[in-house]
Amino acid sequence: MSSQIVWMIVGMAAVTYIPRLLPFVLFKGKELSGFVQGILKNVPYATLGALIFPGILFINEDLWFGLLGAAAAFFAAYLGANVIVVVLGSIAVLSVYSFIF
Amino acid sequence: MAELAVGKPSGEYRKGLQSGISIAIGYAPIALTFGLLAKTTGLSIGETALMSLLVFAGAAQYISLSLLSLGTGIFEIVLTTFIVNIRHFLMSTSLNEKWEDEQAANKVILSFGITDETFSVAAVREEKVTSGYMLGLISVSYASWVICSGLGHLIGASLPQTLQESMSVALYAMFVGLLVPSMKKSAKVVFLAAIAACFNTIFTLTNTLSTGWAIVLATLLSAVIVEWIESVKNRPRGHGHE
């Protein structure tokens, strides 16, 4: 192993771990205001929106590929399918799509 | 029955493992490709595995490879990693509110495993989050990430082209699968997701912000705007004292 690369990895590990860890130390036992708590409760759903778009459109040069995957996942989830079924279902739909086109 | 209601630690661990399976499936193709790319970038299998073991952050690891191949200096690579991963600060802050554990050390250790995916799964869980649940969730995701990174380097190939392409949708499909049930229940969730998606799309397409910051800012803007609108709506009419 080159020591330079190892140092780089150690540095990357540190700057990745710190933001993950810090809130648990900083806000331990602290009562945040109602408004801030409300915002933090909103974060997961806003994050999901930002994680899905626009990323899903760019998983393939073919824009329709991502859109079809999104539609398949949405449809399955809307019908109440379990997350794992949603995942496997959209993989299956896209496999069929790329097999045909 | 009493046990069921309280949730035995081992039961929580198992539930975490089950919830983590879709993450593990989604990580597999990305980690395999990472291992392969690391090999072509000139990293040894030890270095590749070490990076996945210690960093455990997909986007940052990919970026480090492309920067390495451009001959970028180590300091810049570490700084870029920091910027890309700063979004986890927001996620940990949010998760801290619904994760109950008296033992502070558990959160300190397990926070290592907070990724976009493990956070999303835990954060939309209806029940409170426990350390046992997080341990299960993280261990299956982490195992998939590390093992598949190593395998990608070892085999020197990723999955067959068509399967690889279709599997690239896996994590996005999982995000959709996590979001939709809550969207059906609450219009607020629809707005939160849609507004954040719009902001992130604008930031990304106009190239105004790097990926890490775009997600942080889009999320915060949406969370604050929706909360603010709600507080204005719920404010009692008239200006009397409450």
TrEMBL record, chain A:
Keywords attached to this entry? Membrane, Transmembrane, Transmembrane helix
Show the stretches that span the lipid bilayer.
6-27, 39-59, 71-100
Q: Quick check: keyword Transmembrane in the entry?
A: yes
Q: What is this protein called?
A: Branched-chain amino acid transporter
The scientific name of the source species is Sporosarcina globispora (Bacillus globisporus)
UniProtKB/TrEMBL annotation, chain B:
- The answer to keyword Iron applying to this record is no
Q: Name one GO biological process term.
A: L-valine transmembrane transport
Pfam families recorded for this chain? AzlC
- TM spans (from-to): 20-38, 70-90, 133-156, 162-180, 187-205, 211-229
* Compartment(s) of residence: Cell membrane
Q: How does it sit in the membrane?
A: Multi-pass membrane protein
Q: Which region is the signal sequence?
A: none
The Swiss-Prot or TrEMBL record describes its family as follows: Belongs to the AzlC family.
Cite the entry's keywords alphabetically. Cell membrane, Membrane, Transmembrane, Transmembrane helix, Transport
Q: What is this protein called?
A: Branched-chain amino acid ABC transporter permease
Question: What is one term from the GO cellular component aspect held by the record?
Answer: plasma membrane
